[in-house]
Amino acid sequence: MQLDPRLPHTPREGAIYGAIICFLTSLFMTVLNVYWIMGGLHQQALLAIFKWWPLMFVIAMVIEPMLIGRLAEKAMHKLSPPTDSGNAKIMFRLIFTVFGMSLAMTSIGIMLSKGLHANFAVTLWHQWPRNFFIVLLAEALVIQPIARTAMLKLHQKTIAV
Q1: What pLDDT, on a 0 to 100 scale, did the predictor assign at position 1?
Q2: Which backbone phi and psi does 34 adopt, to 5 degrees?
Q3: Which of 14, 16, 68, 115 has its CA 20 to 30 A from that of 22?
Q4: CA 93, CA 74: separation in Å to the nearest integer?
Q5: What is the spatial distance between Cα 16 and Cα 20, in angstroms, rounded to a whole number?
Q6: What's the confidence (pLDDT) of residue 161?
Q7: CA distance linking residue 135 with residue 95, whole number of Å
Q8: Terminal CA-CA length for the chain
Q9: Mean pLDDT value of segment 10-15
């Protein structure tokens, strides 16, 4: 069986791949959500980004491989027949991961910014769908291609050595 050179082949490569995706996604969504909440990218907003982004990155790096990634992998195998192409499997995995991560990270972001309050479910209901679709587009069009290109270059470098 030929391994896809765009995807990680070892646990170390998986950690690098996941770190690239978590880094870019958490930074992008932290900046975007702070921008919306604070009405722009002024000095106070930039301070909020520098304060909250490292925490959001660490949270994403913990929950993706330990929980969301495992569930997404199981869902992908359950709903994607073995005859599906590699690209179809990548898209299934992407959709399931973005679904879970956007729900978890939106919930955590609301709790960190506003606390666990009486209108938590209403706030989540309003913010999560927007975050899901934005992250899905960002992941599919920019973030995942960057991570896959990094893996491809890593594998080309390994083969050349």
Answers
A1: 47
A2: -65, -40
A3: 115
A4: 9
A5: 6
A6: 62
A7: 10
A8: 22
A9: 93
DSSP 87-121: HHHHHHHHHHHHHHHHHHHHHHHHHHHH-S-TTHH
- Looking at every residue in the chain, the average pLDDT score rounds to 92
The structural domain count of the chain equals 1
- Residues 129-136 have a mean pLDDT of 97
- d(Cα 144, Cα 148) in Å, to the nearest integer? 6
Q: In this structure, what token pair is assigned to residue 159?
A: 């083969």
Measured distance CA(76)–CA(129) in Å, rounded: 21
CA distance 70 to 103: 15
Chain centroid to CA 101:
6
DSSP 8-60: --SHHHHHHHHHHHHHHHHHHHHHHHHHHHHTS--HHHHHHHHHHHHHHHHHH
- AA identity, residue 54: P
68 occurs within a structural domain: yes
* Distance (Å, whole) CA 153 – CA 130: 33
Domain span at residue 57? Answer: 11-145
Give pLDDT tens digits for 78-123.
998 888 888 898 899 999 999 999 999 999 999 988 888 899 999 9
